[in-house]
Design a protein that fits this description.
Number of strands: 10
Shape: globular
Strand content: 25-35%
Helix content: 25-40%
Radius of gyration: 18 Å
Oligomer: single chain
Largest sheet: 6 strands, mixed
Order of helices and strands: EEEHEEHEHHHEHEHEEHH
Length: 246
């Protein structure tokens, strides 16, 4: 389904932000990238979403290469990142229609999907409000439904619960589980232990641009001889993080 093979990303000769990363993601799996800010999670996900090219290594999604076959990949992935901003003067209604047309979805189907997703996430009462007038949580929910408008097989979400209140966070987490149960592959990055522990079938711990461990929560706890998932992360981090002595 998804293969990441020895991928590195260098922004200049002194700054290697992603270092020789390899992993695979199966169909119907939620795969997590857990690490602090600056660990390289967003850069890695942008490469998977074809927005950045690896300096070395390669990524294939459903057999398509992210560099040479980017257009084919864009049709089968849904990508959400906090760095993507919605047009502040537009409305959820207009944005949903616009992106539906971009994906060549029939008008009747756009309307059906809009009604379904807006109802699910409580967007309907705010459908004709400008984005600038919406709360952070509502903006995030609008971003989610737009990123999934074309019913993609692969979902790549960078910090999907970032800035959400606990009720909205629960709503988003339950939805990701539903997508998994439909057989979709979900890759998400997070720095929140509870999100990774509860949602992810397997989690890759990222430290300083490298993956230092991959496994289920129980496997990571056992391999580090820790009492819980949070303790496992901090053990892996302290064993692998190199302080800048400069």
């Amino acid at each position: 389904m998804i293969e990441v093979n020895k991928v590195s990303k260098r922004y200049n000769k002194d700054f290697l932000v992603v270092k020789e990363i390899s992993f695979s993601v199966n169909e119907g799996e939620i795969f997590g990238l857990l690490g602090p800010n600056g660990a390289g999670k967003t850069t890695l996900m942008q490469m998977m979403a074809t927005l950045l090219k690896p300096t070395s290594g390669d990524i294939t999604i459903e057999g398509f290469n992210t560099v040479t076959e980017a257009q084919s990949i864009k049709k089968i992935i849904g990508f959400l990142t906090t760095e993507i901003k919605l047009d502040p003067m537009s409305t959820p209604n207009n944005l949903f229609d616009f992106f539906g047309e971009l994906y060549d979805i029939e008008p009747e189907e756009i309307l059906r999907r809009k009604q379904e997703s807006f109802t699910r996430f409580g967007i309907t009462p705010f459908a004709d409000k400008r984005i600038v007038e919406l709360s952070t949580g509502m903006k995030q929910k609008v971003s989610i439904v737009i990123s999934l408008i074309h019913n993609p097989k692969i979902i790549i979400f960078d910090e999907p619960t970032n800035g959400l209140d606990i009720l909205t966070q629960r709503q988003v987490m339950d939805y990701l589980i539903e997508l998994k149960n439909e057989g979709k592959s979900v890759i998400l990055s997070t720095h929140i232990f509870s999100v990774a522990d509860e949602l992810c079938d397997r989690t890759a711990v990222m430290v300083d641009g490298r993956i230092v461990a991959i496994g289920t929560s129980d496997e990571l706890i056992a391999s580090t001889n820790s009492k819980n998932f949070e303790g496992a992360f901090f053990k892996l981090y302290s064993d692998n993080h190199k302080e800048d002595k400069g």
